[in-house]
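[INFO] parsing input record for Ni/Fe hydrogenase subunit alpha
[DEBUG] input buffer:
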Amino acid sequence: MKQIEISPISRIEGHAKITVQMDDAGNVSDAHFHVMEIRGFEKFLEGAAIEEAPRITPRICGVCQTAHHIVSAKATDAVFGLQPPETAQKLRELTLLGQYIHSHSLHFYFLGAPDLILGPDSDPAERNVVGLIKKNPDLAKMAIKTRKIGQEITSVVGGKPIHPVTSIPGGQSKPLTSEERDGLLPKVKEGIGLVESGLEVAKPLFEQYADAIETLGPIETHFGSLTNGGALEFYNGPMKMIDKDGNSVSEFDPSNYLDHIEEKVQPWSYMKFPFMKQLGFPEGNYRVGPLARINIADSIPTERASALYGEFKDKYGMAQNPLLYHYARLIELMYSVEKAVELLEDDAIIGTNIRTALSEPLMSTDDAKNSDKRMRGVGVIEAPRGTLFHDYETDGAGIIQRANLIVATGQNNLSMDIGVRETAKAMIKGDEVSEGLKNRLEMIIRAYDPCLSCATHMINGDSPLVVDIHDSEGILVKRQII
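[DEBUG] output buffer:
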């Protein structure tokens, strides 16, 4: 028995590896996607005041921080039974769009595009952002400018360029001034042209790599996302699940997610495996994120993104291939810039009614200790990588007693694992495995844009962290379970 290990998987957020097991005949017997890092934010939240959750959870990740900030604020709204005013909701949506512009441009151009522009068989020393800059410096500059627009939205509306702070229980802590709006609007408008320039480079790549689209990570699954009467939606709405043919399976209030989604632990990963409860595991496997949203949406309510959506649906229909996540991501990037322009042009965005106040005081900490009162709130949004759930339960003083986070990468976990295994079985024959072939397995993972810092959890409060100590010859001398 021989094992091939690809470690670490490069150009993703977080740490993971792929292992491929070969039998004596040189055929692949099994393969897995392993996530071996660990984060404990569900435990970190316990004992914190609920109003602090929107400031704590962005620290989960430096890329996904805005999504965690906003969904955490939505969950705290639900704990207190507060409905943010219209302006506050629009400010949150604008901040989330800034996250999409930043995240989607970062991922496609700097993490995904090197495989496509430089080629999957290119020298790994060049197959990266530095190589991309050398190959196409104008594209790299355009990508940096696009990403900067997202960061500026986050900085102005969210209060900080990283780890925003302005979404609070009941709304926002600061309005957007006319001067700030006037400063942002021309920059965001410029983003439309930047995205169009990027698409001129990107769209031919999907023709060039048509074979890779068909062969890498083959899988057919259900899909899930929020929806808005069939239109693409990032912030509100019911959650819809469809089958592999696009037929509706269920539509439900996302606050009732526990009636529909369950999580399972597998021995090869610290990341959990969510599945559709009514179908069981693994039959209830489903995916989220850009491809899921494009598959579920009947329309996109902005002009240029709608045209891109139509082209995509005409060519791919009900798309299943993981590499098409890249294409869907570019459609959403265009939508995000266009929608951000619409919000900034809406005078409601500079309104001053930005928070609904709490009408009843919380219990004191001492009173809460003698009370069985509990409050619970669930917040759900579409983060760039897919549907994101934050679920908090507090005592009567608003101190968090339990937290559950289900992130997009976890919901795509089983599909990444299956995609790696099936591709390895189809493409690896014999002992010799080229660097390019190993990279093709990594490309499957990169297509999902996993954020592993967000997705890993403590299990039952016990850390499964293992420290291996090797001598200078690489021989294991000690293993310590922490």
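[INFO] The first helix runs from residue 41 to 45.
[INFO] shutting down worker
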